[in-house]
């Protein structure tokens, strides 16, 4: 993946509304493009984006030396419930493991709240006679004859995939693998998967749910990747390509087809990876990654250039036991709809107008006022987006805002400002969730705002939360695609263990050697630079959940590492409790060569407004200067209030703030000097 002067790096991020394309040349020059997604055949937008972007930069398919793709296909398949027909074979007595789930309730005081229905219908689940104990010892042998008879019940359902999930198989998968072989030979379904091959960790519900999600999206992802592979080959792309996975690393297409659940959070991971790399470049200690799209806002905490990770995420209320960037998503975005609750209070979201029909100002038949409409009415948005390719009907939004505001006794402007204040409060709660609730002082954090609407809200949020500054990356509206360009290749491995004594901890070296051997077999290029990170899941005996910390073969050192992590996360350590290690983990990464950052050092810091317009700020109209961000050089300073426009986003600066551009075109928004003194 080394660069030459002719080499091009490309990343394409496919969302439900738009497909974003980023192309980087060897000198760091970045070109970006947006085009409408094609949800019924997502690969069509990817191929169109690839060809169109190459035409724009005067490149050819053979010039591509890196191609990375992020997709929401798996995400949308689960959310819309249009995946495969999945069946399951489980241990006798555990047919309802997915329906019973766990004791935690989605909303403990809401008697009407219900869990989402399992992805596997109960009538598609049968039981097998077998049993393992918690140590992996066989209690009841697998009755193969009975299994062959039982699975015939599933044949008439014409299932796409069958999951085999047996109790305690994460310790000993022998029965699962044998059952999967028998079912595959019987031809009851096109595909049969052992749950331990998807997630080999304890907690039966979470492990089975993960396997169910993997099976549910598998046929669609496999078909999608096959179609995309064919399209890339037909287009003349010669370089190998990679898929963004939820953990922030890259997978090969074949691995993604085998483990599609690892791509469920693919779309939002790219932006977090980009924000983490930019935080390292800017030498920032604490950064909140803040990505606002049309429907939702994705928020993540980055410490010392490393995003927080989680081993237990959710998609549409269903748990997944796989590594992923720890992103908190809220239903607040540019398309979020304003409404009144039963008490007459103003609310915004989580319902969204989407892209079709979209906000009223989109001129596509939208009937509900949205956050985007509020920005348009207040003058923060002009009457054009995407460099003039998209026209907003501001008068229509104003007329609708006037009519709707009458029920509140407010003018159109005050109604619009109220909508933004409500959504700002919602977003602020989301930011506190990943920071204050984890013991991090927001006053020591920077806000990295991106996504199409992130720069519009960053200034208000920094003021609301008293954060140090807002940082707008060079291409905020395409940040997820740009972030993917420098993501590493990554594989994750986990082995359940039972260690609560010094001798057993040192013996984990054998376990790590076995996982390293598996990694070398899985890597396409094992000879390349490879980093191995050895981790353990540890807890005090009696606790229900674990902390993932670095592994050390010395028991006392391992105890110190765990105690520090426990105190940092929960405010205390327990010197009298016994520590136990329950999982050994190996994270394998192969970093790619980071491309050069585009410099604006050659541009003059002096800029002049390209336009001016009236903007409604804090209850009054003010004339505000409008600037073109592409003219900003190193050291450009713009005092608020101001509007900064570019192809993929619009940035708003409050009257008490100023924005300063750096050498690499990152825009830093902070309080003006006189405001800091006051």
UniProtKB/TrEMBL annotation:
Record domain Hydantoinase/oxoprolinase N-terminal: where: 10-185
InterPro entries in the cross-refs: ACX-like_C, ATPase_NBD, Hydant_A_N, Hydantoinase_A, Oxoprolinase-like
Domain named Acetophenone carboxylase-like C-terminal: residues: 506-670
Domain Hydantoinase A/oxoprolinase: 207-492
Tree of life domain: Bacteria
GO BP term, pick one: glutathione metabolic process
Cited SUPFAM superfamilies: Actin-like ATPase domain
GO molecular function: 5-oxoprolinase (ATP-hydrolyzing) activity
Stretches assigned to coiled coil: none
Descriptive protein name: N-methylhydantoinase A
Any one annotated GO CC term: cytosol
């Amino acid at each position: 993946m080394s660069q030459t002067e002719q080499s091009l790096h490309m990343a394409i991020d496919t969302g439900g509304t738009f497909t974003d394309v980023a192309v980087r040349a060897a000198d760091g020059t970045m070109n970006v493009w947006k085009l409408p997604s094609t949800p019924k055949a997502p690969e069509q937008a990817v191929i169109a984006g690839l060809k169109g972007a190459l035409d724009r930069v005067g490149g050819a398919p053979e010039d591509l030396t890196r191609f990375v793709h992020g997709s929401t296909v798996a995400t949308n398949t689960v959310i819309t419930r249009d995946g495969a027909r999945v069946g399951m074979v489980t241990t006798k007595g555990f047919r309802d493991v997915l329906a019973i789930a766990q004791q935690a309730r989605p909303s403990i005081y809401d008697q009407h709240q219900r869990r989402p229905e399992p992805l596997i219908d109960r009538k598609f689940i049968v039981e097998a006679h077998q049993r393992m104990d918690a140590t992996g010892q066989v209690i009841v042998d697998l009755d193969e004859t009975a299994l062959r008879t039982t699975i015939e019940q599933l044949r008439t359902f014409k299932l796409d995939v069958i999951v085999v999930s047996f109790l305690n198989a994460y310790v000993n998968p022998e029965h699962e693998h044998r059952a999967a072989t028998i079912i595959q030979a019987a031809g009851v379904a096109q595909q049969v998967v052992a749950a331990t091959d998807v997630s080999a960790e304890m907690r039966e519900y979470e492990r089975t749910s993960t396997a169910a999600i993997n099976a549910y999206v598998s046929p669609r992802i496999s078909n999608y990747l096959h179609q995309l592979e064919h399209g890339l080959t037909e287009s003349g792309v010669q370089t190998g390509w990679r898929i963004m996975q939820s953990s922030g690393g890259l997978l090969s297409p074949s691995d993604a087809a085998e483990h599609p659940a690892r791509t469920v959070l693919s779309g939002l991971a790219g932006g977090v990876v980009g924000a983490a790399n930019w935080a390292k470049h800017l030498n920032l200690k604490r950064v909140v990654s803040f990505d606002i799209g049309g429907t939702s806002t994705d928020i993540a905490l980055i410490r010392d250039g490393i995003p927080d990770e989680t081993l237990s995420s959710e998609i549409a209320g269903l748990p997944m036991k796989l590594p992923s960037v720890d992103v908190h998503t809220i239903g607040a975005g540019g398309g979020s709809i304003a409404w009144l609750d039963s008490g007459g209070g103003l609310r915004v979201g989580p319902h969204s107008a989407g892209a079709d029909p979209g906000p009223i100002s989109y001129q596509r038949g939208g009937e509900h006022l949205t956050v985007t409409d509020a920005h348009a009415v207040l003058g923060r948005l002009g009457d054009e987006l995407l460099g003039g390719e998209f026209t907003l009907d501001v008068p229509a939004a104003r007329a609708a805002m006037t009519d709707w505001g009458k029920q509140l006794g407010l003018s159109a402007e005050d109604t619009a400002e109220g909508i933004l204040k409500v959504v700002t409060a919602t977003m602020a709660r989301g930011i506190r969730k990943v920071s204050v609730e984890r013991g991090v002082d927001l006053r020591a954090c920077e806000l990295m705002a991106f996504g199409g609407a992130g720069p519009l809200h960053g200034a208000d949020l920094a003021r609301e939360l008293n954060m140090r500054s807002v940082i707008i990356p060079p291409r905020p509206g395409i940040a997820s695609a740009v972030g993917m360009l420098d993501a590493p290749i990554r594989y994750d491995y986990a082995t359940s263990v039972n260690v609560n004594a010094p001798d057993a901890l040192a013996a984990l070296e054998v376990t790590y050697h076995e996982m390293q051997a598996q990694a070398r077999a899985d890597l396409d290029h094992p000879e390349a630079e490879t980093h191995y990170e050895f981790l353990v899941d540890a807890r005090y005996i009696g606790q229900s959940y674990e902390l993932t910390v670095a592994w050390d073969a010395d028991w006392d050192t391992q105890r110190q590492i765990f105690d520090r992590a426990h105190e940092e996360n929960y405010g205390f350590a327990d010197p009298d409790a016994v520590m136990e290690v329950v999982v050994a983990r190996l994270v394998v990464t192969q970093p790619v060569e980071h491309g050069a950052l585009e410099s604006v050092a050659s541009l003059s810091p002096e800029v002049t407004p390209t336009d001016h317009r009236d903007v409604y700020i804090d209850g009054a109209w003010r004339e505000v200067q409008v600037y073109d961000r592409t003219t900003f050089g190193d050291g450009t300073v713009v005092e608020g209030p101001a509007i900064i426009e570019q192809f993929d986003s619009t940035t708003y600066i409050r009257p008490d703030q100023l924005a300063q551009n750096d050498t690499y075109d990152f825009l830093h928004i902070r309080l003006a000097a006189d405001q800091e003194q006051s």
